[in-house]
Design a protein that fits this description.
This protein is mostly loops and about 200 residues long. The protein is about 5% helix and about 0% strand.
């Protein structure tokens, strides 16, 4: 079911928290989407700015080029979702599951990604400048050519992640797990300067 043209922009919604949500709720204009069941939904290009999507199930959803700036996606399930080119600028994805999601060219600037799961995710060319990735799981993630400037990887698990050609300027790698991480020769000094230890 395609819901590309629906505009969910409504900041500061105070509706009661429903126990179950479906795509039909979107079509009825219900904009309070906590716990929404949107597995496999086609939300290509949807305007979801400041949407309340806490604990929503968006597994396998198509959110290519969707606008999720400032959205609340805490504990949301985005595993295997297509998030190519989506805009998560300033969004809250704390403890969200984005395992094996396609985030190529996505904008995650200043996003709260604390303890988020990005295992096996495609983050090629993604913009994570200033993102909070403390204690996040990035095992096997593809971060090639990503902008990681000023990102905070304190305590993050980057084992076997691919960082080649990523911008690591001023990124914090203190207490990060870096065993098996793949990096360009020129990046090693930057990682060590950021507190990273290879062991």
């Amino acid at each position: 079911m395609r819901i590309k043209t629906i505009n969910f922009f409504q900041k500061g919604i105070n509706s009661a928290n429903p126990t179950e949500k479906t795509i039909e709720d979107f079509l009825r204009g219900d904009r309070y989407l906590e716990g929404a069941n949107l597995v496999g939904a086609d939300l290509y290009g949807a305007d979801l700015r400041f949407a309340k999507l806490r604990e929503a199930n968006l597994r396998n959803a198509d959110l290519r080029n969707a606008d999720l700036r400032g959205a609340d996606l805490r504990f949301a399930k985005l595993r295997d979702a297509n998030l190519h080119g989506a805009n998560f600028n300033g969004a809250n994805l704390r403890v969200a599951d984005l395992g094996y999601a396609d985030l190529k060219n996505a904008n995650l600037r200043e996003a709260n990604l604390y303890v988020a799961n990005f295992e096996g995710a495609n983050l090629r060319f993604a913009d994570l400048e200033g993102a909070d990735l403390r204690d996040a799981n990035l095992r096997y993630a593809n971060l090639r050519y990503a902008n990681l400037r000023d990102a905070n990887f304190d305590g993050a698990d980057l084992r076997d992640a691919d960082l080649r050609n990523a911008n690591l300027s001023n990124a914090n790698f203190e207490e990060a797990y870096l065993r098996g991480v793949i990096y360009s020769r020129s990046q090693k000094a930057i990682i060590i300067k950021g507190g990273g230890i290879f062991e």
